[in-house]
Each structure stands twice: as C-alpha cells, then as structure tokens.
Amino acid sequence: MPLAEAIVPVRDNLAPIFVEYDQTDLLVEGELPRELNGTLYRNGANPQFPTAGSHWFFGDGMLHAFHLENGRASYRNRWVRTPKWLAEHDAGKALFGGFNRKLAGVAKSVTSDGGVANTNVLYHAGKLLALEEGHPPTEIERDTLATRGYCDYGGAIGGPFTAHPKIDPVTGEMLFFGYNATGLLTAGMSVGSIDRAGKVTRFDRFKSPYAAMVHDFIVTERHILFPILPLTGSLWRAMRGKPPYAWEPGKGSYVGVMKRDGKTRDIVWFRSEACFVFHVMNAWEDGDRIEANVMQSEQVPLFTDVDGKPTDPEKSRARLCRWSFDLSGNTDRFTRRYLDDVTGEFPRIDERRLGLRSRHGWYACADPALPIGLSLAGLVHVDGDGARRGHYMLPVADSVSEPVFVPRSKDAAEGDGWLLVVIWRGRENRSDLAVFNATDIDQGPIALVKLDHRVPDGFHGNWVAAE
C-alpha cells in the first residue's frame, strides 16, 4: 500500500461496530488517578442491520462501559436488547425503516415497538436506565449490561420518557418529561418526578403550543421550563411521504415556565423568534429572573424544512447562548444572547450544581479551521457566564464525544475533578478514553485508556461511582 494512501484518515466515525467486547487490563498511557473508581457508561446509535437512508438518531442503542479501579481499566459493550432488536436478531434482517417504523410487508405478528434505547444512560434509585425519548426507560444490569426490559415504576408512568431527565442534587429526585404523550406527532406533553427511593411522586399531562421534537428541558431550584421550538411534528406530512419532523420557523419559539410545585394549567408561555436547542448546559434563578445557558442554533441541524430541503449549515451551528426570563409579569418574551462564537455541542456541568448558579461548564467544540459540519474536535471550559477558561484541540482527524465531569470526592469544590472523554483516533480508526484535569484542559489528557477498536460516535453518558 502506498504511504500516502496508508495515512489518509477514515472520514467519520458513524458506522456501527458488530462485536460485543469484554476487555480487561487495558493499556493505560500516563497514570489514572487512584480516586477514579467507578464506571463511565455511554450510549449511542449502533444499528444491528443498517439500512440505506436511515437517520443517525434512530439506530439501535449500544452501551459502552469503561470501568476504572485503582489505576486499572476494563471495557465492555452490549447492544440494548429492545423488542425491535430481538425481532430483527431472530429474523436476521432489518424489519424497521425510517423513524423506526415497520417496513412494508413485515408480518403483523412482528412487534410494532420500534424503541431503540440509544440516547442516554444514567443511574438513579438503584437502577441503571438506558433512555431515548420515544419510549419508557429500559433497565440495564449494572455490571453485565444485560437488558432487563422496560421500567414503568409499577405502572406509575406511561408513554414517552425524555432522554434528559434531571436529578436534583439537593433532593435526589429525578424530574422528567415526555413529548408525543397523547399519541405520535401530537402536542401532548407529560411531566413527572421520581424520588430518591424510586417512587413516582408526580405524573401529569398537558398540551404544548404545537407538536414538536423536544429533546431537552430546563430545571432550576423552583421551576421547570419546557422549550417548544419549531422542529415540528406533523402526522399530515408523514402520511404523505413528507418529513414527519421538519424545520418550520414560522411557528416561532415558545418556552413554558412552571413552578415545580405548581399545576400544569398555570404554565406561563414565553415567546421568541425561531431558534433551536438540542442541549441545555445549566440554569438558575436570580431574583425574579431565570437565566439559562444553552447551545443554540438559528436553524435546526440534521433535519430538513417541510419540503425536504436541508437547513443552512452556517445557521445550523450551535453556540453557547444565554436565555433570560423575566418572571415579574412585565413581558411574555424571553431574550437570547450568544456568549461565544465557537461551534459546539454536548454541554455538561458539575452535576452537583444542576439548577443552581454554577461557575464551571464544558462542551465539545468544532475545529474552526475545518468546514462547518465536520466532527467535534476539541473541548472548551467556560465559567458560569460563558467566558472561556480553557480550550483544547485534538490532532487533525481525531474527534471527541460528550465530556463527562467526575468530582474528586463528594465534598470537593465545584469543578475539582476530572473530565472523561471518548476520543476517536481517525488515522488509527480506534478509540481512547481520555482523562483530563477538569480545570486545566489546556495541558491535554493526563491519562489515556487505549482500545484496539472504535467506539462509534454516540450521544450521552454518565459516571457512576463505585459503591
């Protein structure tokens, strides 16, 4: 093979892998902090039977677990055995197509449950949960990653459940919502809470201004906010072969504000011009105002308009933005102000400050020297007002996943700890788990756990400390 051909990097890391690994005593470059004892769980789309034209968001979920203990590391990955995955595994072929709807000609006896449990994975009240926003949580065995099945808390919840629940650091309760709560592509929403012991303490439904894909929401000490942004859902479009979800800016943007101990009928809807947000960094209360740091774009990425035309790549890049809400009743508008110009996604904080004023945040960023739309290739560390405190860029052809913060100890100061990031080495077509000093990312990783295979680009994950 000519040398020039040998060093051309693989162009992306989206393709699935088809091996479930169990690897121990992984090679570590540098030294893993001895205080890092636990497991980083990560989830992402990894279709068992890839089909042409399938959207990245709808592949089967695959969990990746990096277990760190006393300076040593091991790795395990498993597909989530959803009803869809099991049916296709038994058939030996794809049975579901776009938006995980059954393909034409598939027998009626085959499950219609197209859930993929592919977006997030977190631990709460003794349960490890794989999440995606169209179905209830799927419970996973913590050590083996075996699938236990749907968890509806004894029938106390029903319908879709967000992939981004929020765990209150003070009360320990998990707050959640769901969209399409009254049927596919409807404006019905749900909201609920589960206490630190795993008991459902609330489950209500309400109607939003229009049907929309609602990926994330906002929680503060006393309020819950529901962003309804114009990535609209339409059964009329879907039945005519048009995009079920599409960018429709004429609808404008709405954010519903509800007191955590209030009623859904008392939600106050704030308005603004069209924009889009997949992910929220954090939010807090400041007197009669709510301030929220979000990753905002002017148009939605990865989707089309109602006629199937792609959105503008420049306007679809997300940047850190401050949303402000005046709760005094003087206005029904919320304001938006960009805090930085770097393209980024997957914002995270020290979760012990969720819903409270925070001084540290991190997100994955794009390389400004490369065309818009290519992989995220660096990390940014910011203060609570979005000012940069650190910036690290990977070598050309490498890309990063979502950064996850791990505190040095339960009572360590905010931001005192490490940032864990899965890195794809494009020239070698394999992945590392990188450990950064969270408040000094500029120096680069202090340790690398080295795999001999890829971890495909994925979505979200969380650290679970050893018990």
TrEMBL record:
Top-level taxonomic group: Bacteria
InterPro entries attached to this UniProt entry: Carotenoid_Oase (IPR004294)
Cofactor section: Fe(2+)
Entry annotated with the keyword Transit peptide: no
Annotated residues for binding of Fe cation: 164, 215, 279, 460
Entry keyword set: Dioxygenase, Iron, Metal-binding, Oxidoreductase
The EC number(s) this enzyme carries: 1.13.11.-
Co-factor binding details: Binds 1 Fe(2+) ion per subunit.
Keyword ATP-binding applies: no
GO MF annotation terms: carotenoid dioxygenase activity; metal ion binding
GO biological process: carotene catabolic process
PANTHER family, alphabetized: BETA-CAROTENE DIOXYGENASE (PTHR10543), CAROTENOID 9,10(9',10')-CLEAVAGE DIOXYGENASE 1 (PTHR10543:SF89)
Similarity comment: family membership: Belongs to the carotenoid oxygenase family.
Protein name per its UniProtKB record: Dioxygenase
Species per Swiss-Prot/TrEMBL record: Rhodopseudomonas palustris (strain BisB18)
